[in-house]
Amino acid sequence: MANVARAVNIADLREMARRRLPRAIFDYVDGGAEDEITLRENRRAFEEVTFRPRQSFPVQNPDLRVRVLDHDLAMPVILAPVGYLRMMHPDGELAAARAAAAAGLLCVLSTVSGHRLEAFRAATPGPAWFQLYLLGGRDAAAAAIERARNAGFSALVVTIDVYVAGMRERDLHNGTPQLLGNSLVDKLPYVPQVLARPGWLIDFLRDGGIHRLPNVVVPGEGPMPLRDVSTELFRSSFTWNDMSWIRELWPGPIVFKGVLSADDARRCLDHGAAAIVVSNHGGRQLDSSPATLRILPEVVAAVNGRAEILLDGGVRRGVDVIKAICLGAKAVLIGRAYAYGLGAAGEHGVARAIDIFRTDLVRNLRLLGCPSIGDLDASYVHPPRG
Known about the structure:
Number of helices: 17
Oligomer: single chain
Helix content: 40-55%
Mean pLDDT: 94
Low-confidence stretches: none
CATH topology: TIM Barrel
Structural class: alpha/beta
Shape: globular
Largest sheet: 8 strands, parallel, barrel
Distance between the termini: 42 Å
Number of strands: 14
């Protein structure tokens, strides 16, 4: 495992993960769709925002705390749902849950997780949200919702931008479908990348190899194989009509993730959104979608305080968090940032990623002359070009 204490920033954790993981596993997290235009645009939008600091306002201990859907968080960072983290490290989602809880943060579990949702919930005494795909059809999704409710998840995150998997070309180049398949002959050309990472391979084999999806239990068939996810997304994608039966099964707060326009934001409100995540799926779905930071002000204006606004996509530094909050987000979701830490060193790596954000936030709030996250507003930034 890498010595993550030496990581100065998220880019360092990314490099540590790249060195430990087979190319197919690393690129699954690192890559985007098609030409990866949106993947780059997410970062470019943050880079275009500049600050308007208030000089000679001494701030000793800035307050990072924020309240999101009645949860008190130690800072405005939420660990986003990332599919099948168990491929990056055997502890996968459980490591993320433990690290988030230790830091006073919230973690969101993906439907496409390698560990049972009950085990994930038991790993954190703090709040946890469950992200829903309709994989396996309505009956399988309904069973997952019931399990999440009984396990004590406090919000349901409905992802609305995955009606078919994006064209993630790195996965095809790396032979990911073949590596997940059953044919040994088809796997052979891609085996060298796995053998080149013996530390990861030993952990993978000790963990029992590729597990089925324990939170997608298809009636009469059992847990879904991981290789079937892309096909099942196309067969069982979410539509607004599904909200009628989802709401019957889930009485608690619903968060809609994948909003990129004022129109969809208002549609989410019509369906009872407690919170909305401005998201382009990290550039992994429709390439040439706009950067989320550029869309954020439009969504904030459309919602007008009727739901809480969150953002993900491209967040790598504490200054990114600050910029998003200045432009109207209540908090941000990080996905790749903590997944790199997980891939580098398991729970210790996730904890290091969180600590990097915390340190960044304290330092940069002091440099801005801002005493707390709650005092941030648009007066501290020059916004990105539309």
